[in-house]
Amino acid sequence: MQIEKLTKNFTVCKIFELEKFFDYGEIFFIGKTDEEISLLCETEKVPKNFSEREDGWKGFKISGILDFSLIGILAKISALLAENKISIFAVSTFNTDFIFVKQENFSNAIKILSDNGYSIK
Description:
single chain; alpha+beta; eight-stranded mixed β-sheet; 2 helices
């Protein structure tokens, strides 16, 4: 399976409200509950209306389109990283999965995934 490294740095933050027509970057994810609005976006694109933020995330994208019938892809990757004490922030889209790790663990995550048969580009 091929995994793509994302080149940007990312931030996870809580924001007070979504801003219309705000440029959150090429890749961003929004999650809203009755308690919060969370945003994962490029660090340089964090809006001013945040209440909390955590910088220093780097990401991977699983290449290609994943069929919904596929089982365990994210579980296997997260288990490999967890066994090596690397926590993740995972996000899924209709097409694929994204995995974010803290910047200081990025090189080690690449090595672990490569050593376990994943092709990293």
